[in-house]
Amino acid sequence: MHDPAPVALPRFLTSPTPGWTTQADVLVVGSGIAGLTCALRLREHVDRVLLVTKTELSAGSTRWAQGGIAAALAPEDSPEEHLDDTLVAGVGLCDEAAVEVLVTEGPARVRELIGLGARFDTDAAGEITLTREGGHHRDRIAHAGGDATGAEISRALIAQLEAVRADPGIEIIEHALVVDLLTTADGSVGGATVHVIGEGEIDGIGAAHARAVVLATGGLGQIYSATTNPPVATGDGMAAALRAGAALADLEFVQFHPTVLHLGEGATGQQPLISEAVRGEGAVLIDEAGEAFMTGLHPMADLAPRDVVARGILERMGATGVDHVYLDARHLGGDFLEQRFPTIVARCRELGIDPATQAIPVAPAQHYASGGVRTDLRGRTNLPGLYACGETSCTGVHGANRLASNSLLEGLVFAHRIAEDLTQRLAAGELPPTTTTGEGSASLLDARHRSEVQRIMTHGVGPLRSAESTSGALAELAALAELASDTAEPGPLSWETSNLLHLGQALATAAYLREETRGGHVRRDHPEHDDAGWAAHLLQVRDPGDGELAVIKLDVDLAWPQGDEDAADDDPLEGTQ
Ligand code: SIN
């Protein structure tokens, strides 16, 4: 087998010349917990914030989050214990400083969220009820509406935003897809091209200039045929950042959620999630024969970290020759299930499965990108003026496998930090308005190839991988890239398809190179951890000259800039642009 040819990406997606322009201090892209929190905080201190979101404010992944938000809120719990669980789940690749930020600042941020109107479930005494999910040694997951935590957080934050919509200091544009980042000759980011389905002056492609851009566009789940992510999760922010020269890290660590409702062979698109909290309340995974197979595989059995459970299921599926296992919650009783998991029970019943009387068929499916645009502790990327937050970012918090319910928390905590950092920098006159160039290669893959990209990624770079499967995927993706041209018809579907292709190529490259099994990255041909060879991160950066993706392998202790002024000099990526 030959090593795959290097991947080269265009600088831009082909798009029409901007027909309108606008100017802001900060452009925030995305309206999940990260984008909304950041925009709301910024508008308190910054003159002009522009928030753009791809469809409606509530359409992103946040509103689909079921289980909850993890934080050491119970008197018997502590940030140190939350830190320990997060580090174990991350299998040696978390950045401990980033995790420390997450777990120590998390509880205060969650209380502020409650202050903003988010209503978490409480007991008779009014105390927040906490549950457990995989990898946690304590009950520390706050939830809302039983299993509708993200929907409640999204509701509360959008209500805050609606209350200030008329404020001249903030502008909100919905149905606005970010196509590419605008950069200066030296690589600083000074805005983005945005496609708006609107009316009047702001319609079609425009240029939104800003002193800083915060990408909070969520994940890339639609890169696979089946995912728990909503249709908008096409990795637009990550892909635009990669083309502009930002470093992406840890892309190979895709989290496959163990318990996604199995809808039969060939089910595609967004799939119903069966929250890990169902196992937290006592449900058990069983195989066709009714054997509880996680017992004996890990001391935490069904509540082992997510990657361990997903692997346990895949092994059992392989051993029994079937394409799913079952989650048995029958012993919890219909009344309890309806009250604690109303969304899940209703969805299952709609689809003809009653969790009160039947074991629920489940199989792993794509759920979360643990990697993304690499940031420091203030959310800064290697490109001046560019920040990334939430699932779009790679803060170092998740390592090789995200601990359950740490994602909403990460979006919340780091959005605050970004807003704080930007407030200080803008007040100090840093990040002055810039002149962007718009020069560079452009191409586009036609939207009709989208399901092909998804098929290639699912078969070649899915939950079980090998050198053969990943190199095969790279060859097939390269053939699709050959079909991309600067004459393809621009439009949201082809921009999204091209983003999936570009991220697919980067993800498959990292998955091919990492010759070990760790966290969400499972190699059949390298089934063990290899700490001697792979206690390292893979970073990918596009060369501004020839467009090739350089892959940088960085020792785990070197890979993360700590975000204080002195440490910036030690960043191995300093000066890559
Ligand atoms: C779940 O409810 O199982 C998902 C929670 C998460 O992804 O952290």
Helix count equals: 14
Enter the CATH topology name of the domain at 263-364: Flavocytochrome C3, Chain A, domain 1
Strand content: 15-25%
Number of strands: 23
Q: Uncertain spans, ≥5 residues at pLDDT below 50?
A: 565-569
Terminus-to-terminus distance: 34 Å
Net shape: globular
CATH architecture annotation of the domain at 263-364? Alpha-Beta Complex
Largest sheet: 7 strands, mixed
Whole-angstrom Rg: 22 Å
Structural class computed from helices and strand pairing:
alpha/beta
Question: In percent, how helical is the residue content?
Answer: 25-40%
Bound molecules: succinic acid
What average pLDDT do the residues reach? Answer: 95
The H-level CATH homologous superfamily of the domain at 263-364, spelled out, is Succinate dehydrogenase/fumarate reductase flavoprotein, catalytic domain
The CATH C-level name of the domain at 263-364 is: Alpha Beta
Features:
single chain; Flavocytochrome C3, Chain A, domain 1; 577 residues; alpha/beta; five-stranded mixed sheet
Textual characterization of the structure:
- The chain has 577 residues and is of the alpha/beta class.
- The protein has a domain at 263-364: Alpha-Beta Complex (Flavocytochrome C3, Chain A, domain 1).
- The chain has 14 helices and 23 strands.
- It has helices spanning 33-42, 79-89, 96-115, 149-163, 236-244, 276-280, 306-320, 334-340, 342-350, 407-427, 450-460, 467-483, 492-513, 531-534; strands at residues 12-13, 20-29, 49-52, 69-70, 130-131, 141-142, 170-173, 176-183, 189-196, 204-215, 226-227, 248-249, 254-261, 269-270, 284-286, 325-328, 360-369, 372-374, 386-388, 393-394, 442-443, 536-542, 549-555.
- Helix 2 crosses helix 3 and helix 3 (96-115) crosses helix 10.
- It starts with 11 loop residues before the first strand and ends in a 22-residue tail after the last strand.
- Bound molecules: succinic acid.
- Succinic acid binds next to helix 6.
